[in-house]
Amino acid sequence: MSSVDGLIRTALQDSSELCSLVKTRVYLSVAPQSAAAPRIIYYRAGGGPLQSLGGGLSTYNWNYEVLVVAETVGEARHIAALATVALNGFSRPTTIGSCSLVSEEDGVIPPEDESGAGLRTVTQTYSIWGSS
């Protein structure tokens, strides 16, 4: 886990209201198959160190995605809103200069069989600027 990964997890888990809903179900990259909803999965979706003609710089711009999975659309959107409060504007001296919500999209995870309605998702993309 990179330091940015850990800082994002900390920011999400520092929200008492968010934790009251997802408990400890905040996962990096992939959730266990047995993980109950609601849950949050976050991962680095792209980006990297900035480059110049003289070589690499100590500044980076990462794109992270935060996937909220819940039983209903309303619950997924509520948890996503709490994640936005926790992350949008988040910063840490010497590591993360800024974290901004770039986009948000609703989705569905189809049910494994005909008996259920599936799970609802909200995927958020954040742009994170910082230095290494």
Rg computed from alpha carbons, rounded to a whole number of angstroms? 16 Å
* Quaternary form: single chain
Supply the number of helical segments. 3
* Proportion of helical residues: 25-40%
Shape annotation: elongated
How are strands sequenced across the largest beta sheet? 1-2-3-5-4
The biggest sheet, with number of strands, parallel, antiparallel or mixed sense and barrel status, is: 5 strands, mixed
Q: Low-confidence parts, pLDDT < 50 over ≥5 residues?
A: none
Approximate strand percentage = over 45%
DSSP strand tally: 5
Would you tell me the overall average pLDDT?
Answer: 92
Secondary-structure class: alpha+beta
Distance between the termini: 15 Å
Q: What is the H-and-E element order?
A: HHEEEHEE
List keywords for this structure.
single chain; 5-stranded mixed β-sheet; elongated; 132 residues; alpha+beta; 5 strands
How do you describe this structure in short?
The chain has 132 residues and is of the alpha+beta class.
Would you kindly provide a written description of the structure presented here, covering whatever features stand out?
The protein has about 130 residues and is an alpha+beta fold. The chain contains three helices and five strands. A five-stranded mixed β-sheet has the order 1-2-3-5-4. It is elongated and about 60 Å long.
Present the secondary structure layout.
Layout: H1 3-13, H2 16-22, E1 26-28, E2 39-52, E3 55-70, H3 73-87, E4 96-109, E5 119-131
Parallel strand pairs: 1-2
Antiparallel strand pairs: 2-3, 3-5, 4-5
